[in-house]
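Re: that chain you flagged

S.,

Sorry for the slow reply, it's been a week of failed gels. I finally had a moment to sit down with the sequence you sent. For the record, here it is as I used it:
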Amino acid sequence: MPEHCLKSTLGDLKKIKDVDVVMKDIILVIIIIALITTLISGCEQGVGVISQNKNIVEIKDFHVKSDSTELETSARGTVFLSGEKGEVPELAQIVVFVEVDPDDWGGVVIHLSDQWNITSITSSFPNDNNNSPSVWTTADTPDHGWNKFIEIGRDRTRYSPTGGGKGTVIIELEINKDTLSTSDVLRMGVAVGSKEKDGVRIANPDSKDIGIPISIP
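Prediction finished late last night. Pasting the structure tokens below so you have them in one place:
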């Protein structure tokens, strides 16, 4: 083959090879763009299906500490009321983080009136079944209005320290509509700690009443 023909053929092969490289680069860029588009689209769709505070109509925070004593006992939590907008709330959830001092025999107590019906309690306080929350109810409603008591870190059988600890307690409730008037306030109480004064033992000297106003159509 003549030398000029051989050079021409080699040049053509080089051009073809360069074109192949360019095409591969273009295809690679297209694939990368397609992948990025798919990922972004997937993220947008994933975010779109997440709902926040669905059917929540009222939120109330609370915080109670054993300020009148030297104990490090406290309860910090939130009450969530849920239902249809414009209607009486049907359900409630109390999420509370509790800390009970190792020397505290009073623990944390949540007081409820007959406005609330307890349906379930989930607790991580502490990893000891003997100290799990206990529920006490009374047959009638005393003058203070409380007829249900959820006790955390407290042993009624001996009224002595249970060892303390930390944990989260989730209380699921139904709201008793029959107890509500036209314009009412859902009430609960949170009390913490213990102390002794003049030889008298006092349970839960630090407390707070919590009221959540609701409007009934």
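What I noticed first: Strands lie at 56-65, 74-82, 91-100, 108-112, 116-123, 134-137, 148-152, 165-175, 183-197, 200-215.

Talk soon,
D.
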